[in-house]
């Protein structure tokens, strides 16, 4: 991770993160416009209610290039005592160097610091590196089901980490 700088929200990062995720999931799962539109729309709604003392918008940069990012959404009342880990992205050239774990660690630290009972995420089958990262951190699968919320049929997976 030499040369990586960590930051929070920066203007333009919504497009960078949504675009990075869209490109990555297009390659891995054949996702298209429905996925990118869903991510951008939901991220915009999140940013409208973002509170820096509660939520986390973590980014990692190599120079001016977005190397990775994620969001910890801790303000949705529907999530109860859990925070929602969302939009985890590590750029292809940065993978396998510990950046995902460093970003995840920041999110888990924030959730603990604000008194959440744990964190949950939703993902899809076939993301082996991400699944290994979450398992190593202590997340457990709490639900698996077929779904199409991402724009095509996949196995959707919910994972939780209770503190």
Give a structural overview.
- The chain is an alpha+beta fold.
- It has a single domain, classed as Gcn5-related N-acetyltransferase (GNAT) (Aminopeptidase, 3-Layer(aba) Sandwich).
- Helix content is 36%, strand content 33%.
- A hairpin with a 2-residue loop joins strand 2 and strand 3.
- The mean pLDDT is 96.
Helix content: 25-40%
What is the name of the CATH topology?
A: Aminopeptidase
Task: Spell out the CATH superfamily.
Answer: Gcn5-related N-acetyltransferase (GNAT)
Q: What is the tally of helical segments?
A: 4
> What characterizes the major β-sheet?
7 strands, mixed
Number of domains: 1
Element-level helix/strand string: EHHEEEHEHEE
The average pLDDT is 96
Structural class estimated from helices and strands: alpha+beta
CATH architecture assignment: 3-Layer(aba) Sandwich
Count of distinct strands? 7
CATH classification class: Alpha Beta
What is the topology, as strand order, of the major beta sheet? 1-2-3-4-5-7-6
What best-fitting shape do the alpha-carbon axes yield?
A: globular
Distance between the termini: 27 Å
Query: What amount of the residues lies in strands?
Result: 25-35%
Poorly predicted runs are none
CA radius of gyration: 15 Å
